Amino acid sequence: MERGFRLCQGNRVAVFVTRSLKILVALILLSSCASGSNNLEFKIVEEAIPGVLLPDFPHLVTEVSCPEYVNRDLGTIFCTLQVAGKEISVSITGPDVTNSFTVNPRIKIVKAIQLAQKVKRRLDDDLGVENQIECAPEIRVAHPGELFECEIIDQNGGVHYLQTKIIDFDGSFEIIG
């Protein structure tokens, strides 16, 4: 999924998220752009990354750290941040001719709601009955060994618990009980 944002627009900073469906979401940050300088102040980029990377869960992105000043002609920089307690790195490419930047997480992030849907399909097929399922926490970085706790409610209202474990960097999982 392509994600990007635009830095300068007059004396205001406009941040845009671009998805493959070409949906544009604008977040306005009040700041002035140093138009006469060839250096970019990446504090503005740091503030935009949580909403661009995880629009549904920006509160789970913390400790964003980018180089303080970067030459505008550099092209790609790397920033580090914490996602749900795990340190990851993202590459930021730009600006292009429209002053847009692209944020590329270097690792997959697994959302609990998507995992729950996959676990539900697997359990429903295996057991031959419909179940309701919720998993937590909201997200995990796809790193082998990361766990989700899931609660299953069967057709009779019985509550059962299981864990799913991420087994690779692609977010594949196994049900461990």
Average pLDDT confidence is 77
The oligomeric status of these chains comes to single chain
Poorly predicted runs of 5 or more residues: 4-36
Number of helices: 2
Number of domains: 2
End-to-end separation in angstroms reads: 32 Å
Strand order of the largest sheet: 1-10-9-8-6
Structure description:
The chain has helices spanning 43-53, 112-127, and strands at residues 4-6, 8-9, 12-18, 24-29, 39-41, 61-65, 69-71, 75-83, 86-94, 100-105, 109-111, 132-136, 139-141, 147-153, 159-166, 173-175. Helix content is 15%, strand content 46%. The relative contact order is 0.13. The chain is elongated and about 60 Å long. With 177 residues, the protein is an alpha+beta fold. The chain has 2 domains: 4-106, no CATH class; 110-175. The longest helix is centred in the last third of the chain and has 16 residues, at 112-127. The strands form 5 sheets. It has a 5-stranded antiparallel beta sheet with strand order 1-10-9-8-6, with helices on one face. Strands 12-14-15-16 form a 4-stranded antiparallel beta sheet, with helices on one face.
State the gist of this model.
By secondary structure, the chain is of the alpha+beta class. It is 15% helix and 46% strand.
List keywords for this structure.
single chain; alpha+beta; 2 domains; 4-stranded antiparallel β-sheet
Topology diagram in text:
Elements: E1 4-6, E2 8-9, E3 12-18, E4 24-29, E5 39-41, H1 43-53, E6 61-65, E7 69-71, E8 75-83, E9 86-94, E10 100-105, E11 109-111, H2 112-127, E12 132-136, E13 139-141, E14 147-153, E15 159-166, E16 173-175
Antiparallel strand pairs: 1-10, 2-3, 3-4, 5-7, 6-8, 8-9, 9-10, 11-13, 12-14, 14-15, 15-16
